[in-house]
Fold this sequence. Notes:
Blueprint: H1 5-17, H2 22-29, E1 33-38, E2 43-48, H3 51-60, H4 62-73, E3 78-86, E4 91-96, H5 118-121, H6 147-158, E5 168-171, H7 178-192, E6 198-202, H8 203-215, H9 219-226, E7 231-235, H10 244-259, E8 263-268, H11 280-286, E9 290-293, H12 299-313, H13 319-328, H14 333-350, H15 356-366, H16 376-387, H17 391-395, H18 401-417, H19 422-428, H20 434-450, H21 452-468
Parallel strand pairs: 2-3, 5-8, 5-9, 6-7, 7-8
Antiparallel strand pairs: 1-2, 3-4
Helix pairs in contact: 1-4, 6-7, 12-13, 12-14, 14-15, 16-18, 16-21, 18-20, 19-20
Amino acid sequence: MSNNPRELWDNSLQVISQNVTEQQFDTWFKPIEFVSYRPATKTLLLQVASPFVCEYIEENFIDLMSKVLTRNFGQGVNLRYRVLTDSEHGLKQDLQAVTPPSIESPRPRTRANQSPTALDAAMPQEIESQLDLQHTFDTFVEGNSNKLPRSVGLAIASQPDSMQFNPMFVYGPSGCGKTHLVNAIGVRIKEQYPQKRVLYMSARLFIVQYSNAKLQNRINDFINFYQTIDVLIVDDVQEWMTAPGTQSTFFHIFNHLFRNGKRIILASDRPPVDLQGMSDRLLTRFSCGLIAELERPDHQLCLDILNNKIEREGLSIPDDVVHFIASTANGSVRDLEGVVTSLLAYSIVYNGHVDMNLAERVIKRAVKVDDHPLTLDDIMETVGRHFNVTTNAIIGRSRKHDLVVARQVSMYFAQKYTKMPANRIGKLVGGRDHSTVIHSCTQVEQRLKVDKSFGEEIQSIENAFRLKK
């Protein structure tokens, strides 16, 4: 056998892979990085992704680790973990593993490994899933802003017992489709695995239930109920930031579900790192699976969502009206669907044709509009001042770089802040068509993702808009 410590660790991984499931190995052991081994102290240092990985390995695989390390490194191995605690500043922390039990020692008898009891045999009662059955994958239109979360959601729904992507933490601004997505996952699981106990729960209702259980001295019953869930979906978890008692209780529920291979899906309006007031140990658990961002839908996705809903509702809406709605819904899926629903109601009640006039009336009631909206002239004047060009130059035909950028930024802000459809914006900015406007907006959005200085310029222009208003 080789005496090279790295090769000894590779051998250890090979043995471990033969004694756990492929999913367990890929999730917990494959990402571990060998750091060093000091023969003098028999200290093996391994780097892991988070403190939660250490905790999980210690609680679930300590016997296996003890046997494998003894076999490859000899008796008395001193195992330590290195955890990256601050990726931005490269801060790390070394943690001492617990002393493994001797190989000959019998494994302690616990509820996890003992034979089922009569209590275990009693099946929990059927529950109402609280899922919105209208929110399915069929009605969740795929686009650039949601492709990854939707694909992962489909994978989870097809194999809910897999530990991959568990927990799934979805975040994004209000109206981007988070609630729709997590409900779609739950609905698909319930369709394919009807025996699963699936529960959708808002974080606010969870707080209320916890408070009531505390007042009635029934916290244990409350926890026990949630520990019977197979797929737990919690929406708007940012509501827990000011609720330490709720956090502590959910921590225990999370641990139980996770250790027993149950599926956990969480949604929030911000990523875990921005959940100020949330306990570190809970944030560690939120971050140990997949963190997926849902962005506001771009113009093309807004059009696809509208056309999908229009077709399902059996409506007939002219293309220019569809483009107008997509341009005025502020990138909110909720607003898009609300406008179409309102148009359907108006067309039925008044037996009328859906046209631009009706769309404008409905949008005034369905979509929040600024008291003093910016005009296209305001936008081009402010953008021109920032780039030191005239409004006439912006609407002209010159292809000079500075003018092209100013023109694209003007179209981007026109679509963002005015209620005009793309074809109308194009006509007013030098007689261009709607495809030019859409292309310009896409160019600006793509550049914002990779160019920090450009993002600062855009922010400076928006600040000027606020001063003007």
